[in-house]
Amino acid sequence: MVQLTPGINLSGQTLNGQIFSGDGSNGNLFKITAQNATFDGTTLVNADLSEADLFNVSAVGTNFSDADLSKALVNGEQSERPNLTGADFSDADGDGVGADLTEANLKAADLTDANFTDAILERTSFEANIIVNTNFTGADFTGVSFTDITISNATFDLADLSGVNWTDISPVAGETSTDISFRGADLTNFSAEDLNLGGADFRAFDPDTPSDTSDDTQTILTGVNFADTVLTNAKFNGLDLTGVSLKGADLTGADFTGAILTGADLSEATLDGADFTDANLTGANLNKADLSNAILIDGADSDSNGANLTDITFVDGIATNANFMDALLVNADLSKADFTGANTSGADFTGATTVDTIGL
């Protein structure tokens, strides 16, 4: 076994399968240089790799649990990516905190199948990464921005994504959805730009069984901006989206069953086939939105009303073939909206404005 010391230069060396644990005498790798080195299958549990230069490293299946990688350079370029496939940055000692990557640089790293459960990722640099089947459950992303990311089937359940900005996020080539899970995550003031979040799951995090909701962790979406974002078939069941901006978003087939969208901006959004069963859209802006084939009926709640669309504005909206059975459209502004083929049986239009409305 190579004896490692702080500051040692290991560039280009192969150290596959070796053990450099912080629990022993060989785990102090502070400020080492290991550019283009290979650490595949290596154990670095609790090791000190702070400020290490791991440019273009290969660490396939490497165990970094509880390691300190603060300010480490684990970066590269898209033409020659650092390979962190299957690497483990999770919590090993059970204290609820995984590896520390505060201010680490992970530019262009391939993070396929990597595990960052409970990792500290404050101000970590994510750019041009491959994030496929990656697990970020419970991770702290304070001060992080994601840009130019290829992502699919990643898990961000219970993660702190408050104030985080994502730009230019795309699915893997050939796929149309990114299918990310955000269950129970804190997305306060999360901002999305030029994003594909098709198939995303924003439901509450359920640690046990769906029938027991007493210990569920609710996803926080306060101040979220999803304007012009692709959210086809996304799951928002039972969530509070009060004031959220979904202006111009593609929400085809999205599930808003039992969701609260009071005051939300859904103007110009595509909501074809979206399910608003028992949803509360009081005061929402739906001007020029497309609700074709949408479902706004009564479901399993205790009342006999469909979706609550009281005081909405739906000027120039499209609702062809939508199902508004028993819905509340009290005082709604439906001017110039098209309800051709819509089912409005039992719907309450008391006080609604229907100037130049089609199909009512």
Which residues form runs of ≥5 with pLDDT under 50?
none
The number of domains is 3
Tell me the distance between the termini: 80 Å
Radius of gyration: 24 Å
CATH class of the largest domain: Mainly Beta
Which key terms come to mind for this protein?
five-stranded parallel β-sheet, 360 residues, Pectate Lyase C-like, little secondary structure, elongated, 5 strands, 3 domains
Describe the structure.
The protein has 360 residues and is largely without helices or strands. It has three domains: 1-140, 3 Solenoid (Pectate Lyase C-like), CATH 2.160.20; 146-206 and 219-225, no CATH class; 226-360, E3 ubiquitin-protein ligase SopA (Pectate Lyase C-like), CATH 2.160.20. It is 0% helix and 7% strand. The protein has strands spanning 126-127, 130-132, 145-152, 165-170, 191-195. Strands 1, 2, 3, 4 and 5 form a five-stranded parallel beta sheet that branches. The chain starts with 125 loop residues before the first strand and ends in a 165-residue tail after the last strand. The mean pLDDT is 94.
Topology:
Elements: E1 126-127, E2 130-132, E3 145-152, E4 165-170, E5 191-195
Parallel strand pairs: 1-3, 2-3, 3-4, 4-5
Short recap of the structure:
The chain is largely without helices or strands and 360 residues long.
